[in-house]
């Protein structure tokens, strides 16, 4: 640093750091050579080396003390002499600026600022005496996104959004208003302030640097000396120690989101700094009329005095020696070369001279104030400036110390208040967590989780959870409603069975005639069939509920483990450094609530299945009725022996598994495939072992192990298998399976796939770059696929050498980049057709504009995945469907278990010899939970094998195993008692219901036989009565026939009697003659009369018999009519009962439908209310932002109007003075209007000149210089 007061140039030093581990991994070689005071940069072979000369050059082996002795000591010397001094470090991000300026502030490797602080107070201690005193004040600020913040003041709600204001005053220079100045008396206090400021400084991780500074940092040390014996020592000085944020390119840093915006503001301010240096360099070359654009950036405004004012300035340029950063190093060296030509005019800051300047400025302001006091212009600006300068002049050492103490007390008070707020916040957090845990409401906890900061990874894990918890609760309500409906139906069945049994007993006791029993039995049998169908529907709904919980649990476990390992993964990517940023930072409360979600999900699962099992109790109770039913069936003559035997064996029957579905759903948990608790060594396969890590459901926690998105064997054969060692005996209850979709467009799947394609030593970009693939990443993949594996060589035209050279493509125009990507897309389509994948992969829907603009990132990732598989198809041989890009899933599979991994037993149902074949997936996306059901293993097992039997395209799958440790059901007390009760198992209830149905069927069959026998007997009786009736009718007919014959005989006898009478008359006449014959005729007549009387008696008897037969016929007709009436009544009762039953079932269905519609309507209204609330909140926020913007614009307009009124008042006043001066001059009077003095005062105020816009001055900004600090692809 110069020893002479006056004009001098900026001192420039260059420091080259060693190669970093990242650069070594990237294959970087040294291209910077240091020799004395020169730096030689070796670029490409076709370009000559660039040689630069500077004041100081520090090589790879330079030390911190060496840098301090060369740069820091001269700065301190000049500061004690009363000169302002500045050191600022410049260079690309990750080049070592902060290491040189700060480093570890408490070690021997500390940087310039801590060493300057130590040496400063050593000198002060040595020079302090009774007559000589020193007052040292420190300030610390940062410029973040073009806003100035005080790093010594914690930011809060009261921190203005516009930051601190930059002011300038004569005698004071450029300063930051309201910037805290802390009086320090020891080096430890300085270090404490530095630590305090660095806690508030903005940093973030980029691909170039794990702790990249996202703001410009300025540490200011002001020193005021007073010497009562030597007035020459009464001076003050200011040391500006600047750590600039690194220049960066988005393609190199991979910045996105807020980090990208920060990088843009950093480059903008550095570009403005470059323009100022260019302008100052031009002015130093002899050009006088040069506009210096200090006001184009807050950085250049703060450094105005350091660059072209009253300060001795040193620039320390930091370089990376790697050839991969040669372009940035060349830019930095050119920057430093231009800075070396800048001339500065440093003057000694004498106290008396500075006070005189301030008094002169105050007097000038008072003059202006008095001139405008009578006008309408606003004079408050001058009054404020006068008050501020008088305050500065009158401020004593004691005032500064008092203010510093007050600030220190205020800072401590604020820190204590902040600590109390943190403690209150922590207590509130604990209280809320405790309330959430006590309440046990899983839905409320998930809602709370959504409102916490989980970073990008947390949002990725938990974004679908609100929908899943809604589906889960809806399924629970459906299961509960189905249980109640089934319970009502079961009660109806039991009522009918009891009623029938009671009636049957009465019939058997002779108390009833048994009318309608068979109809009642048939009704009960139909209800039992309906009940069993309802049980089956309930079982399906419970399986859906179990599947919903089971598929959600591994996601929660994966989130818990993944969040914990997220930071370690980021450290691994960046060489062990902490790369946490605002986008991926996860709050401690989020982690706690996430763990609470896992615990509550487990407890909720246990609770709901305990409740479901308890509800199952209401579905049972068939045992006592089964025995009664069997007794009644036996009374009917049914063969109930087999039924009684099954009832006796039902408790210990092996027809059912050891554990019911309720126990499996409540206890079974993922066995560590998804959460990676089960190590990779426990997974093996019959082929393609490199894909075993991909078999984990959802890709596991570390997606780098799941490159192939699932496992697929070499051959499409049923003998292929995937094997899992569970590490301990487990009661296996189910499997969760998912297909394999190689080309998904998921950015998380692209990086592990690329790692498989690249060689082990090749560098791999961090995962965050795949969210929005930059051009460099896609180009590198193309080079790897095409250059190494010739996977895109088919088709014409081919890539040119310039297109495959990224540097040439980077410097090319936009059209050249568009042509490259159009050719890439065309060759990719050609390669897809060549591989026969045109029907397996949907067409790419991405354009070169999308790639260059970072849009349609899902399709960009699909393109990268297709390129990787094209390369892997060439790289990997004999891997079967592993490199096929079609969707793959297993439709059917068998499973085997083993205790030792050698002897295998298939999962089979009891009594079945053939292995059970389980239904797998129906597509590649849906996760299907496969219950083992009756095929459960008879004991806890350790080893499992799955063998695909049917598949789509190829056997591809992802897997999770569910089960629980042996003995868990017996040991753990929190398990609800209903889960241990066999009577609460739905399969047991269904089995007993089937036995009840079987008993009713036997009773119904026996009753049918009884009814048939009764019908047959009745028919026999009817036939017999009819036969008897026919016989009587025949006898009657015979009697009538005999009567007719007798009548004919009677008529004949009458005729004979008439003839006899005639003969008697004739004989009368001959009586005398026939006296003897008369006696004989009389005797014959008497005999005939006796026979006639006898015949008449027989005829009366026959008539009585006919009447008796006719009475019996009438009686039979009456009985028949009574029977027909009874049958009609029973038929009518049966129809009425059936109609009533159907009406009840219809009513029940309508009520259930109304209940479901009501629930769905409630859910819909709740969703609508939440959406309306969210929209209202967004509109309120939007209105607040609009009002704030309007207020700011109104304020700006008011300021501009005020300024215009002031300028108008000044103009009017000057015009009036000029007119008066002209009039006085015309009259020959002396003129007091001093134009030259005002013009001179304007020239002495440089800020007046810089308020002009660049268009007012004939200076053009160099586009090439601006472009130097822009991103290499502005389209990104």
Automatic annotation (TrEMBL):
PROSITE patterns, A to Z: FA58C_3, KINESIN_MOTOR_1, KINESIN_MOTOR_2
Biased composition (Basic and acidic residues): 1237-1248
Binding residues for ATP: 91-98
InterPro entries registered for this protein in UniProt: FA58C, Galactose-bd-like_sf, Kinesin-like_fam, Kinesin_motor_CS, Kinesin_motor_dom, Kinesin_motor_dom_sf, P-loop_NTPase, TRAF3IP1_N
A GO term for molecular function: ATP binding
Domain Kinesin motor: start-end pairs: 9-342
Region described as Disordered: spans on this chain: 1237-1276
Cellular component terms per the entry's GO annotation: microtubule
Coiled-coil features, chain-numbered ranges: 348-439, 1008-1140, 1169-1228
Claim: Calcium is one of the keywords in the record: no
Record's keyword terms, sorted: ATP-binding, Coiled coil, Cytoplasm, Cytoskeleton, Microtubule, Motor protein, Nucleotide-binding
Gene3D superfamilies in the record: Galactose-binding domain-like, Kinesin motor domain, Microtubule-binding protein MIP-T3
Family in the record: Belongs to the TRAFAC class myosin-kinesin ATPase superfamily. Kinesin family. KIN-5/BimC subfamily.
Annotated protein name in UniProt: Kinesin motor domain-containing protein
Organism the protein comes from: Effrenium voratum
Upper lineage: Eukaryota, Sar, Alveolata, Dinophyceae, Suessiales
